Amino acid sequence: DAKTTQPNSMESNEEEPVHLPCNHSTISGTDYIHWYRQLPSQGPEYVIHGLTSNVNNRMASLAIAEDRKSSTLILHRATLRDAAVYYCILRGGSGNTGKLIFGQGTTLQVKP
Amino acid sequence: DTAVSQTPKYLVTQMGNDKSIKCEQNLGHDTMYWYKQDSKKFLKIMFSYNNKELIINETVPNRFSPKSPDKAHLNLHINSLELGDSAVYFCASSQDKKVANTGELFFGEGSRLTVL
Hints:
The complex is a heterodimer.
Chain A: E1 9-13, E2 18-23, E3 31-38, E4 44-50, E5 55-56, E6 61-64, E7 70-75, E8 84-92, E9 106-111
Parallel strand pairs in A: 1-9
Antiparallel strand pairs in A: 2-7, 3-4, 3-8, 5-6, 6-7, 8-9
Chain B: E1 4-7, E2 10-13, E3 19-25, E4 31-37, E5 43-50, E6 53-57, E7 64-70, E8 73-78, E9 87-94, H1 99-102, E10 106-107, E11 111-115
Parallel strand pairs in B: 2-11
Antiparallel strand pairs in B: 1-3, 3-8, 4-5, 4-9, 5-6, 7-8, 9-10, 9-11
């Protein structure tokens, strides 16, 4: 599975947008980009995923670079509840094992 | 109703004991997983079952034995517990085993195992 690189930590102010970057320079053409987050003392929670086009859902937006070597998770208005570890994960489109490989993620702190 | 539920939430036991963690999902999913999160917070997959069939076994010691009586349940039994087994164990499920394009794993809240 291709590797992802994320900053260890980021800070944001409440009600401001947050852009969480992820580099995946060795991504293959069939790899999907997944984002999960883990709130304190909880299990990971799915956020969003995409292949080539930008994606929006009720939680966040995913902006994927044209060459697909990087992506950005966008939280449009951070709330205190968004403080969590955010994981960027690549999954092969041809894979059928359902295995997610979690890296260290980005710890997001949200200041009131 | 909790989608993926694990019991117990906390488990404290002595080295050498045998213990089990139970997991149930009410989402009608075909695939279930066990992940382990160690003290450094890294999450690693241990096992995956699809319709009661083992499809992933990540070189976990054979003291760990998953058991799936039906596709809604995946229990984890651990024999001869060691100090290094202390961790948080997460159960998860997905609609099918092809996570890449269906996207979503649903995780339980975790079971914190402490081995003394």
